[in-house]
Amino acid sequence: MIQITNSKHYDLEERTFLFAVRVKNLIKALPKNMINFEITKQLIRSACSIGANYLEANESLSKKDFVMRTKICKKEAKETRYWLRLLDCPIKNSKEKEALIQETIEFAKIFGSILEKCK
C-alpha cells in the first residue's frame, strides 16, 4: 500500500495518481472471474479518470473549462465508489477496498469544495 508521507501538505495530482495505482494493484490481486472482469473494466476507467481530469482542469484555458473538468472529477469519484462497492473482494483485500472507498468519498468532498469556491 502506498502512503502519502506528509498528511498536511500534498499534491492532489499525486494523490489521484497514487489512488489509481492502488486501484490497479487491488484489481491485480483479485480472483479472475466473469463478474470481476466486467466490474474491474469500469473501475479502472473511472479510477484513472479522476486524476486525468484533474490534470486537465489544472491546464484549462478558462474558468468554465476548469469547473466542467472538476465536476467530472467529482462524478468519476462517485462512480468509482460505486464500482468498488460492487467488487467481489476476498477478505485479505477488504481493508484496502474499504480504504479506497473512503478515498473516493474524500475526493468527492474535495472536488465539491473546489466547485463551491468557484461560484
From TrEMBL:
Q: Which SUPFAM superfamilies match?
A: IVS-encoded protein-like
Matching Pfam families: 23S_rRNA_IVP
Which residue ranges does UniProt annotate as crossing the membrane? Answer: none
Domain of life, per lineage: Bacteria
Instruction: Note the InterPro entries from the entry.
Output: 23S_rRNA-intervening_sequence (IPR012657), 23S_rRNA_IVS_sf (IPR036583)
What PANTHER family would the database entry show? FOUR HELIX BUNDLE PROTEIN
**Name of the protein this chain belongs to:** Four helix bundle protein
